[in-house]
Amino acid sequence: MGNARKHLGSGLYRCGCDECRGADTVRVMTRTNGRRTYACRRHHLGRPADPVDAIVVGIVEGYLARPDGPASLMGARDVPEIAELRAERDRLEAKIARAILDYDNEEIDAATLRAVKDRRTAEVRVVDRKLAAAAKTSQLAALAATPDPVAAFRQLGLNLRREIVNALVKITLLPARSCSPTFDADSVRIDWR
């Protein structure tokens, strides 16, 4: 398993405590009673995970169920072609390989090789970010094209559901307004992207 995410909001939802103010993400802690809690890394805030996830999934599924939901989102985005981005990445990696070969053939010096590698590696990182964004958008497009986007969303694995949630909304967990033992739904702030 390694560092693979096991919970919908771990590392995705933001902490809205006074100290973090949305700059840090929450993680899941399992209490001795077996209940999962999303907790601030600084331990200033904790929210029971199941009700938070239920609210988030309900909002996302409600959006996907709307006739204008995923279709309107796809119409508003310019989706770069994944094949073109992969070809650009291959082209940049070929330039790095060519510079290495030129260095091996003593046609360029180490400083020039380093400069070429640094510049091209930075360009590869930009293309990789565009590829990641295109993959998310393409997943939304695939979801929008299904006859039942909600059912399709429910059948996705955790990582893809996390990507869909992240593409649609930003979740911030806020301090509860009272010490009541009942869950405070207002402590979950949802902002549409």
SSE layout and pairings?
Elements lengths: L13 E2 L10 E5 L5 E5 L5 E3 H17 L3 H7 L6 H23 L5 H36 L3 H7 L2 H11 E5 L14 E5 L1
Parallel strand pairs: 1-5
Antiparallel strand pairs: 2-3, 3-4, 5-6
Helix pairs in contact: 2-4, 3-4, 4-6
How does this structure look, described?
- The protein has 193 residues and is an alpha+beta fold.
- It is 52% helix and 13% strand.
- It has one domain (14-192).
- The chain has helices spanning 49-65, 69-75, 82-104, 110-145, 149-155, 158-168; strands spanning 14-15, 26-30, 36-40, 46-48, 169-173, 188-192.
- The strands form two sheets. A three-stranded mixed β-sheet has the order 1-5-6.
- Helix 2 runs antiparallel to helix 4, helix 3 (82-104) packs antiparallel against helix 4 (110-145) and helix 4 packs across helix 6.
- The relative contact order is 0.16.
**How much strand content do the residues show?**
5-15%
How much helix is in the residues? 40-55%
- The rounded Rg comes to 22 Å
Sequence of secondary-structure elements: EEEEHHHHHHEE
Q: How would you describe this structure in keywords?
A:
extended, 193 residues, three-stranded mixed sheet, alpha+beta, single chain
Summarize this, please?
With 193 residues, the protein is of the alpha+beta class.
